[in-house]
Write a structure and sequence with these properties.
The chain is of the alpha+beta class and 288 residues long. It has helices spanning 36-39, 56-59, 77-92, 106-117, 138-148, 181-184, 191-200, 227-236, 239-247, 254-270, 280-286, and strands at residues 10-18, 21-30, 68-70, 73-75, 97-101, 162-167, 206-207, 223-226. The protein has one domain (10-286): 2-Layer Sandwich (Muramoyl-pentapeptide Carboxypeptidase, domain 2). 36% of the residues lie in helices and 15% in strands. It binds zinc ion.
């Protein structure tokens, strides 16, 4: 059964964390429709648009031509349809699989970057302590931002293939959660979701790219990639593509970021867990 959509707003509490320690909190209002309940009402006859047209602008979130908004969630149509199917299956197991975030555009990442660079938005060091960005020279300032934020153009959320998930059925009445690793571990509020995803997400073509800490993006058990569309985007996103996006945008500290870019590209784009070999049924679908 799919849970009925409630009329009050749902909030996501984004917390800055190191491991399981909570470092800072901000509540982000979320559209109530970013849920499986609404997605499940999409017409079953909908035919996803092919994703093969993704180019430099789409890869870096500067175009929305590759994505479609439906039920409050924006992703590539193929990935969105797969996610909707996974939602249905999860709901029969009592899990209300919901999306905290799907596609994010380049301008949004630039806004976050620039606000942190100017000291207008909370900036924390690797230990979670607040830093005054304006006291840092350009290179350490850029490094400090990269601890918690993807560089504009380098987020997998630009691709429309990736989605952050949680189980709305497991939430308390205030609808708040932290999006922190401990919630997804055994004993955590989303432990059942983790277990269900471990056993089932591959059948719907999803996997987790941020399980292992490889020195770039920290482990994010809530972050799922739709294998086919993410693999395609990953192959296409070259260093030159990312460089061009940054050269052409009003990013604070642009010259510094461009100098660091080869290392940033390696650590934050390339250093992820590889996609698994999908079940045969999914593989056949993936090539049509
Ligand atoms: Zn994510």
């Amino acid at each position: 059964m799919v849970s009925p959509v409630r009329s009050h707003a749902v909030f996501i509490r984004i917390q800055y964390t190191i491991g399981t320690a909570r470092m800072g909190v901000v509540d982000v209002p979320m559209r109530r429709s970013e849920r499986c309940a609404t997605l499940s009402r999409m017409p079953s006859t909908h035919v996803p648009r092919r994703s093969s047209a993704i180019g430099p602008l789409e890869l870096t979130g500067r175009s929305r031509a590759h994505v479609r908004e439906d039920g409050g969630l924006t992703m590539q149509p193929v990935a969105l349809a797969a996610f909707r199917k996974m939602c249905r299956a999860a709901s029969s197991a009592g899990i209300d699989l919901a999306a905290a975030s799907g596609f994010r555009d380049f301008d949004r990442q630039v806004l976050i970057w620039n606000q942190k660079w100017r000291g207008e938005r909370a900036l924390l060091d690797a230990a979670g302590r607040p830093i005054d960005a304006t006291r840092l020279r350009p290179v350490p300032r850029a490094r400090a931002i990269l601890v918690w934020s993807a560089p504009p153009g380098a987020s997998r959320h630009h691709w429309g293939s990736d989605v952050d998930v949680y189980d709305r059925a497991a939430l308390g009445p205030d609808g708040r959660f932290g999006l922190v690793p401990s919630e997804y571990e055994p004993g955590g509020v989303f432990a059942r979701l983790t277990e269900w995803l471990d056993q089932n997400m591959a059948a719907f073509g999803f996997y987790r790219p941020y399980v292992t800490d490889r020195g770039g993006v920290r482990p994010e058990p809530w972050h799922l990639s739709h294998v086919k569309t993410a693999r395609d985007a990953s192959r296409r996103l070259r260093l030159a593509t990312l460089r061009r996006a940054i050269v052409e945008s009003p990013i604070e500290g642009r010259a510094t970021l461009l100098k660091m870019l080869p290392q940033v590209y390696q650590r934050y784009v390339r250093s992820v867990d590889p996609p698994p070999v999908l079940p045969a049924r999914t593989k056949r679908r993936a090539v049509d």
